[in-house]
């Protein structure tokens, strides 16, 4: 009888306990055992994978797909051509470092100029199942494995994979010898099984961005020159043999007898595995009561020491805020690794170029919205990048007790997108936006605004309850937009599908204006006009010359309810505003002459693209 690992049984238990939340949702499970031998002179390595693949779907699978990400780093690859084509677009609103052109400044046309010893490649030499070789069809960054025997529902196969690879020069995310001199940033480095879910195979070629993976367990053995410190998103099993600061206190590490060391890493219930290596890495740690052990690995440069120490201290300080606001981090460790080309998140670790606190916190928050919740980034980038941008910026503001509107950057980014003429629906596949500008702005800015504006619709306190319920209900379950909206509806008691449809699946914008004011039956009648095509509930603050104020709230009829009162200002809840009607009038008992000003959305959370018509100040 085949023995199942404890972690796999725990994973099954997690799935079974989620039946109430997702009665019809299943997901695949995987176990990798990977062995690689790195040659630091040639930047090449050979490797083997033993992959246990559990088909927990109701479907019979006749093929399996794998990602071969590094094949993108070759001249004339799809990533190369796509980058050069986007670089032909001159944006009306130039972005930093791009000379007004739309390509990614890190990539540009660099791939087209790579020499044979600079390219990246992953070559799968064979895939055996029960000793039988399978037919392999390579589609650049996707490998198709045509199975000699199908995988039946609720069954398991074991694949033995032999592969070889060359680490590309650092261009995008992974690679060697980046600008900071880090030797190896090893992301997307192994043949990785493509996710298969209720929508089928997600065999997305590696064009530019975003990932999706199968949750599983990793045992990874890395043999490399003994001078190199290796770090990874996982737990080091032979720390007392390796040393380098990983060993337990008081342990005397025996010197290596050969030229190499084998580092044995393990990571359970994750959907990817990243590692990095450099002979000049330094390791420092921070212990968080009730939280994970933080490890910070960076290239030792004396002038930068204080910055990395400060970043480590700040990350330790901010964790209690993150845990209380968004949920507890479930793994034992988290590692910040200097490497890569900016900031890129992976399970239990991130690659960052420098000791930027803002970048570090942003990448760490990806653990909540991508590594733990695990939405399909290619289809729903806004659920990852947007929610991460929202939560990391909010956590930083809470840590610093920052006054003012911490979310202004996200709103500003959305406004630039909405006015640019380049906007496409946020539901567009991440690789298929017409411009990098629209893709990035939709995912980050519009996605972050989605969350803050949700607080405007349902109330900030209710939104925070939604965040906790979403995290606790859907962690380790690959939620989609409908799953989030259903949680929001259940917690708020409001209907919210309209919000998703307008904000995510269209480019319709919000624009409201203060309209006519008149005396009717000794009362002041105030008209609010909807100019934009996206309807919303509306808050209107009326301020009188004697300093008193009234809040007037018009729920949207599509909500079938109203948010709780959020302010101590006396509030009148009016009849719902029908979305079909461009105008809405309400009355206040006091005379026009007593009014000082009328303001739509005094909280500034409504993403109104023209705020110049939101406030009317009545002259004395």
Task: Give a description of the structure.
The protein is of the alpha+beta class. Among the domains are: 75-113, no CATH class; 280-372, Neutral Protease Domain 2 (Neutral Protease, domain 2, Orthogonal Bundle); 399-503, no CATH class; 512-617. Helix content is 25%, strand content 30%. An 8-stranded mixed β-sheet has the order 5-4-8-2-1-14-17-16, covered by helices on one side. Strands 19-20-21-23-22 form a 5-stranded mixed β-sheet, covered by helices on one side.
Short structural summary:
The protein is an alpha+beta fold.
What is the topological layout?
Elements: H1 6-17, E1 29-39, E2 44-55, E3 61-67, H2 78-86, E4 121-129, E5 132-133, E6 135-139, E7 142-151, E8 155-166, E9 175-176, E10 184-186, E11 192-193, E12 196-197, E13 200-201, E14 216-225, E15 229-232, E16 235-236, H3 239-242, E17 260-270, E18 275-278, E19 281-287, E20 293-299, H4 305-326, E21 333-338, E22 343-346, E23 349-352, H5 357-372, H6 381-400, H7 408-420, H8 436-458, H9 460-474, H10 481-492, H11 497-503, E24 512-520, E25 523-530, E26 538-544, E27 549-554, E28 571-573, E29 583-588, E30 595-600, E31 615-617
Parallel strand pairs: 1-14, 20-21, 21-23, 27-28
Antiparallel strand pairs: 1-2, 2-8, 3-7, 3-11, 4-5, 4-8, 6-7, 9-10, 10-18, 12-13, 14-17, 15-18, 16-17, 19-20, 22-23, 24-25, 25-29, 26-27, 26-30, 30-31
Helix pairs in contact: 4-5, 4-6, 5-6, 6-8, 7-8, 8-9, 9-10
């Amino acid at each position: 009888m085949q023995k199942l690992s404890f972690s796999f049984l725990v994973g099954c238990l997690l799935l079974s306990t989620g039946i109430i939340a997702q009665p019809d949702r299943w997901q695949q499970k995987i176990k990798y055992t990977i062995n690689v031998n790195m040659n630091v002179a040639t930047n090449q390595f050979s490797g083997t994978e033993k992959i246990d693949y559990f088909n927990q779907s109701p479907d019979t699978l006749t093929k399996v797909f794998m990602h071969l990400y590094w094949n993108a780093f070759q001249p004339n690859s799809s990533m190369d051509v796509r980058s050069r084509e986007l670089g032909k677009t001159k944006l009306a609103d130039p972005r930093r470092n791009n000379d007004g052109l739309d390509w990614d400044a890190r990539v540009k046309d660099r791939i087209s100029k790579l020499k044979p010893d600079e390219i990246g490649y992953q070559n799968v030499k064979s895939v055996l199942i029960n000793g039988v070789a399978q037919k392999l069809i390579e589609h650049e960054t996707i490998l198709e494995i045509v199975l000699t025997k199908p995988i039946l529902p609720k069954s398991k196969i074991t694949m033995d994979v032999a592969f070889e690879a060359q680490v590309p020069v650092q261009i995008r995310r992974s690679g060697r010898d980046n600008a900071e001199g880090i030797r190896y940033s090893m992301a997307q480095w192994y043949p990785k099984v493509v996710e298969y879910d209720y929508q089928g195979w997600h065999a997305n070629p590696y064009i530019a961005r975003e990932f999706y993976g199968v949750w599983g367990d990793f045992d990874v053995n890395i043999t490399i020159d003994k001078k190199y410190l290796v770090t990874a998103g996982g737990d080091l099993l032979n720390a007392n043999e390796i040393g380098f600061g990983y060993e337990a206190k008081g342990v005397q590490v025996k010197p290596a007898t050969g030229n190499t060391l084998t580092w044995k890493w393990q990571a359970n219930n994750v959907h990817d595995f990243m590692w990095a290596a450099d002979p000049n890495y330094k390791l420092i740690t921070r212990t968080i009561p009730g939280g994970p052990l933080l490890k910070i690995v960076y290239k030792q440069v004396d002038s930068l020491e204080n910055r990395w120490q400060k970043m480590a201290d700040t990350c330790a300080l901010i964790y209690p805020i993150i845990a209380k606001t968004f949920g507890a981090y479930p793994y034992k460790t988290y590692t910040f690794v200097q490497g890569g080309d900016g900031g890129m998140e992976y399970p239990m670790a991130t690659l960052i170029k420098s000791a930027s606190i803002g970048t570090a916190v942003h990448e760490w928050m990806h653990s909540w919205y991508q590594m733990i919740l695990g939405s399909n980034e290619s289809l729903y980038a806004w659920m990852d990048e947007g929610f991460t941008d929202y939560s990391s910026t909010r956590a930083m503001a809470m840590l610093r007790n920052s006054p003012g509107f911490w979310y202004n950057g996200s709103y500003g980014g959305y406004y630039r997108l909405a006015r640019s003429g380049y906007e496409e629906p946020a539901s567009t596949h991440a690789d298929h936006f017409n411009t990098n500008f629209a893709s990035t702005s939709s995912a980050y800015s519009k996605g972050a605004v989605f969350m803050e504006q949700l607080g405007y619709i349902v109330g900030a306190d209710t939104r925070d309850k939604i965040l906790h319920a979403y995290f606790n209900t859907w962690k380790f379950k690959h939620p989609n937009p409908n799953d989030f909206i259903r949680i929001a509806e259940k917690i708020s008691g409001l209907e919210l599908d309209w919000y998703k449809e307008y904000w995510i699946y269209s480019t319709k914008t919000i624009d409201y204006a203060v309209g006519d004011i008149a005396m009717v039956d000794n009362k002041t009648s105030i008209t609010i006009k909807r100019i934009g095509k996206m309807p919303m509930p509306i808050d209107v603050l009326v301020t009188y010359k004697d300093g008193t104020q009234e809040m007037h709230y018009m729920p949207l009829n599509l909500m079938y309810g109203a948010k709780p009162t959020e302010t101590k200002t006396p509030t009148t809840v009016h009849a719902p505003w029908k979305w079909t009607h461009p105008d809405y009038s309400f009355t206040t008992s006091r005379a026009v002459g007593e009014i000082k000003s009328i303001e739509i959305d005094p909280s500034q959370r409504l993403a109104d693209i023209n705020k110049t018509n939101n406030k009317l100040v009545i002259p004395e």
